[in-house]
């Protein structure tokens, strides 16, 4: 009799222990599942935030797409093959063009236009380097990879709107470049001459041109193929206004980039 009672008690104790162990295991599994679920939700939220916006130091959230800067050739040149360049909603600058005459005085003015049906009539001037936003473009293919026409733009500072010739539009401020050769490929600028290199300026015949330090010159482009001028040593082409042997005027002179610095 006593043996039966002992066996029964032993069986009951074993059952209680097994049930307790199973219960703890189930509780642990539940907690782990909850933890995994919470972690998944937090990670997903972070990824969504990262891909939609960035936070500025002042706490302002900014759409990342608004910070993209697009560098274009400008002046009506195709950026992809022979396709029409796309300037609408692009911020850029009104700038001089090489078929217009400019002096070494830093007050260049660029023509602006108003539209009268299918015609564009000059209605004033605006300063070289004025920052604008392109609202509309009306271009037509002119030659291989080049388009002509006009852009409706808004002055960023005054919010006035007007048309400019597409040849006067760029979207990179080349006058801020440190590479003067690259700047000369984009547009004209006024530079100050100071003899620093081992090369004197030369004329189109490769003859030495002596100029005083501090003289302002009008850079009009790059040397290109000149029979008597080495474009490796003298890659910058500029117009120098001074009293020459046969009188005052502007004469083309070729420079080493090291001897020039952009002033306008």
Write the SSE topology.
Layout (H helix, E strand, L loop, with lengths): L1 H51 L1 E2 L5 E2 L28 E4 L14 E8 L2 E9 L3 E13 L2 E10 L5 E5 L3 E2 L9 H7 L2 E5 L21 E8 L13 E9 L2 E9 L4 E3 L2
Antiparallel strand pairs: 1-2, 3-6, 3-9, 4-5, 6-7, 7-8, 10-11, 10-14, 11-12, 12-13
Name the descriptors.
disordered N terminus, 5-stranded antiparallel beta sheet, 14 strands, alpha+beta, 264 residues, 2 helices
Explain this structure.
This protein is an alpha+beta fold and 264 residues long. It has helices spanning 2-52, 180-186; strands at 54-55, 61-62, 91-94, 109-116, 119-127, 131-143, 146-155, 161-165, 169-170, 189-193, 215-222, 236-244, 247-255, 260-262. It is elongated, with a radius of gyration of 36 Å.
Short description:
By secondary structure, this protein is α+β, with helices and mostly antiparallel strands. It has helices spanning 2-52, 180-186, and strands at 54-55, 61-62, 91-94, 109-116, 119-127, 131-143, 146-155, 161-165, 169-170, 189-193, 215-222, 236-244, 247-255, 260-262.
Count up the helices: 2
Helix/strand class: alpha+beta
* Cα shape: elongated
Helices and strands, in order, run as HEEEEEEEEEHEEEEE
Quaternary structure state of the chains depicted: single chain
Helical content stands at 10-25%
Terminal Cα span: 115 Å
| Largest sheet report | 5 strands, antiparallel
The residue ranges in which pLDDT falls below 50 over 5 or more consecutive positions are 1-9, 11-60, 62-68
Mean pLDDT: 81
Based on CA atoms alone, the radius of gyration comes out at 36 Å
**In order across it, which strands form the biggest sheet?**
8-7-6-3-9
Portion in beta strands: 25-35%
Total beta strands: 14
